[in-house]
Amino acid sequence: MGRRSRKQIEDDMIAKIVVVFLAVGGAVSAIVWFATKVIRSVAARWAERPADVIIVAIALIFLALILLSLKTNIRVFPKPMHDALHRHGKTRSSPRVTNTGTRVPTISDDPPINGHEFEHWVAAKLKADGWDATVTRGSGDQGLDIIAWRYGKSIGIQCKRFKGSVGNGAVQEAHAGRMYHHCNAAAVVTTGRYTRSAKDLSLRTGVILLTPDDLPQLAQIAGFASAYYNWPPRHPAQTSKPTG
């Protein structure tokens, strides 16, 4: 087969461009036709039964708000509904995508029993939600197991994989680690319970007391993501106020 002339190549390119324009024009025309039919149908329905159209519009708005909450973690519903939606969202089997575009494999909802594995599990949970989280080396960490960064701020975290109660020793360690590493905030996360003394001390020091279920909302709880949260932050695991 001989070489094609320049004119033949140009003619082929023009033909392809024409085909593309015709295809795009046909698709746009079909979309416009369909949209026109829908609008006319809605208008006719509105004239006959306006209540039906209002109900459908409210349902679509509600669905859009649910998608907005799941995709952006913005709280558009009361906290119990917001938390329920995100607990449901954590059961997805497909990879998650952080706000930096990084695909993160799905992480088990059940925390591991081993304490060291629990630290890495917490760090992985935070990374899946867009945090830059690092597990400390263990020695010389001054009470912090994880240091995480987001929105230009850092938080030091003490992890306790307990079945029983966590006392104020963990709060003291987290507070000392925050001062040593110059973190903006400090937190303790545990699978167990917090003693009354731990809750009282956390209110005095500003150390946040968390459970694993609080991790998806950590940026809001710590006051990193919203101006509506002021320091000292709210403590989800606390139920009492300091005495005296």
From TrEMBL:
Keywords: Endonuclease, Hydrolase, Membrane, Nuclease, Transmembrane, Transmembrane helix. The chain crosses the membrane at residues 13-33, 53-70. It comes from the Bacteria. InterPro entries: Restrct_endonuc-II-like, Restrct_endonuc_IV_Mrr, tRNA_endonuc-like_dom_sf, Type_IV_Methyl-Rstrct_Enzyme. Residues 85-109 are annotated as: Disordered. Residues 113-217 form the Restriction endonuclease type IV Mrr domain. It holds the Pfam family Mrr_cat. GO terms for biological process: DNA restriction-modification system. GO terms for molecular function: DNA binding; restriction endodeoxyribonuclease activity. PANTHER family: MRR RESTRICTION SYSTEM PROTEIN (PTHR30015), SLL1429 PROTEIN (PTHR30015:SF6). This is Restriction endonuclease. The lineage of its organism: Bacteria, Pseudomonadati, Pseudomonadota, Alphaproteobacteria, Rhodobacterales.
